[in-house]
Amino acid sequence: MTDTPLSTPITTESTFDNEKPPEQITRTTYGHATTTLKAAAATEHGFTPLQAIRTYWRAFGWCMFICIGGLLWGYDSQISGGTLSVPYFRRDFGGVYNGQFVLPARWQSALNSVSSIGGMFAGLSIGWVADLIGRRGSVGCACLISISAVFIQFFTPSHVNGMLLAGKLINGFALGMFVSTASSYCSEISPLALRGITTGSVNLWIVIGQFLSNCVIEGTGKRTDSYAYRIPFAVQWLFPLILLIGLPFAPESPWYLVRRGRVDAARRVIDRLGGGNVDVELMVNQIQETIALEDRDKASTTYLDCFRGTNRQRTIIASMVFVLQQLSGVIFALGFSSYFFQLAGFSDSNSFRLGVGVTAIGVVGNLVALFTVNQFGRRGLFFWGMIACSVVNLLVAFSSLAPTSSGRWASASFTIIYNFCYQIGIGPLGYIIFAEVSSAKLRSKTVGIGICVNSLCGMLANIIIPYLVNPDEANLRGKVGFIFGAAGLLGAIWTWFYIPETKSFTVDELDILFEAKVPPRRFGSTNVADVVVRRDGEGNGNGSE
User: Where are stretches of biased composition, namely Polar residues (predicted)?
Assistant: First the structure.
């Protein structure tokens, strides 16, 4: 088989012949692309995470900058549940029940789920937006939308609940754009050794946002005026402004630039991100050839393509990681933590402090995960994370059966343990896996679908859980842990069979594994070179390259 020289990029026009049958096109394409893709893969596999950070510290830094949008997602999700623990908020937007101010369950459900509705629409539109104006342009649009939405929330008069919901709905759209774009951006500008760390950092920033939200609520929640909750709303203005200031200096994704035909601009970005210490032409050729391989059927894409052929499996995996997060009970254990502590009998001040402690432990867990994700891989951490969260949910439920002080403190302790287990496994791994399993061609669309599913599941959880927890409804309180404990164990079974190991595979290597229909649970034990040899062997009859 004749290999293409490193200096010769593969283009769609020169590589593919429309008169050949599809299977022959596939075999020929992999053969021509072998030299460049193998050389690029060898280069990427040669980096350790520490070496990659030293060489690509600029790329790492810009990933962390773009991930600030994830902070806003976490802040908003936590502020919804956190404001429920603020007496003055319940006074201004709720009513009196058994001598205390309570926000009715229907408004709790609406308040906690409306951002998810906005996120769903963002997930459905971000693929088109990101492919049209780029990753930087998408973040800029999200910043402007978020600033306007927070303005509506901050100036909402008391008992005008509909206006508050409108602000959160609009902000939810911006938040969905932030997280979708951050995941795609990190996956596309990071070298292989840093891809798990940077994409997992999306969740780290989400947890930092949750921690910041609880700190702000702890500091303002005891005020006896409307600024007890207006100040937490206003803090959200800070981070879009930071992003808008830095965006003009941020590099665009080279994958996006190549797809738009701006190859010289992509070269400059790669050279800048690598500090002049990388083989720019090799990296550009890798992008061109991977795109050419994925474009062999047709150059344009639609959302329907995410559900055709092998992309269907990739889209299901990218979506299911977020379904599994909700089955593990994350909204129950974390989103309602401060409010849950109050219902369990803790004072307002202790509830605030426990809420801060829960999210602080989550930050620690995420930092640990960034070190373990390359060491132990994606699949194992996600699977054992599901098991651990299920067990802790059951322990929370059993503790709640004892209406004593020790039982309440046990439930609180298990909630903190839950967050550590979740953030060391399921939390960051979800964002890593869904960004890695998508093809380069459909990444923005697949990631958008994943965020849409994430928002949909979050919305359903936020609608249902208040009716299960609230004293004026089912009043199950901590016993809801029985439900999520059982659901999480079922999710762990699905994880075992269908979550692949994506560690140490380049984009084109993952393409090969999915197209060869290797079972997801066997990705980690499969030699990609053997898969290529078998495919090439079908074309030349001797199994050699």
Answer: 1-15
Place of tokens 């929640």: 221
Q: Are 211 and 362 in contact (CB under 8 A)?
A: yes
Whole-prediction pTM? 0.80
pLDDT in tens, 369-407: 888 888 888 899 999 999 999 999 999 888 888 777 777
Cβ(450)–Cβ(322) below 8 Å: yes
Q: Which of 189, 215, 191, 186 is nearest to 74 (CA)?
A: 215
The mean per-residue pLDDT over the stretch 337-344 comes to 64
Q: How confident is the model at residue 345 (pLDDT cuts 50, 70, 90)?
A: low
Residue 12, CA distances (Å) to 9, 32, 67, 216, 295 in order: 10, 12, 33, 53, 7
**Quick one: DSSP state of residue 1?**
-
Pairing of strands 100-102, 95-97: antiparallel
| 53 burial via Cβ count (<10 Å: 0-12, 13-18, 19+) | middle
Encoding tokens for residue 220?
Answer: 């303002």
How is residue 204 written in tokens? 């780290």
Question: Lowest-confidence range among 100-109, 163-172, 432-441?
Answer: 100-109
Cβ contact 159:95 at 8 Å: no
User: How far apart, in whole angstroms, are the C-alpha atoms of residue 167 and residue 149?
Assistant: 5
Sign of the Cα pseudo-torsion (298, 528, 43, 382, in order) = positive
CA-to-CA distance for 431 and 393, rounded, in angstroms? 22
pLDDT for 63:
92
Residue of 279, 284, 249 lying closest to 264 (CA atoms):
284
Sequence-ordered list of residues with C-beta below 8 angstroms from that of 9, at least 6 positions apart, any chain: 36, 284, 285, 288, 289
Residue 484 in contact with residue 332, Cβ under 8 Å?
yes
Domains along the chain? 21-540 (1.20.1250.20)
Q: Are 447 and 126 in contact (CB under 8 A)?
A: yes
From CA 394, how far away is CA 379, in angstroms rounded?
Answer: 23
Position 459 confidence tier, pLDDT thresholds 50, 70, 90:
confident
What are the angstrom distances between the C-alpha of 64 and each of 102, 183, 371, 373, 438?
39, 11, 16, 17, 21
